[in-house]
Amino acid sequence: MKDNAISWFEIPTEDIDRAQKFYEAIFEIQMIPMEFPGFQMRLFPISDPKTGIGGALVKTSPGFYIPSESHGPLIYLNANPDVEIVLSRVENAGGKITVPKTLISEEHGYMGVFIDSEGNRIAVHSIPQ
Prior knowledge:
Radius of gyration: 15 Å
Helix content: 10-25%
């Protein structure tokens, strides 16, 4: 295994435009659209695709991806410098907070969990500088 345990992630969507608007609002980013026949993606921006961890929102054939509040892996997205900044935008963007900002430890920082606009359970993590 190299530097990171994760190299790529995909978050399922029912409505990719709604999901894109949600994530752009809570992280204050611009996502990058990619379209293929029968497959749509909105990529999270990263500074260096060769060394960074990439991921995307995905819409494809029904049943291939199924958004879930309780099943499947839990992805932690980077919310530095403070989880609370991202969590404070979740409800206005159409999501629901299920775990508010919570201290893991002084060394390991904070986490929180929300349900996104598509019904996915997603976590955020930050480490104070």
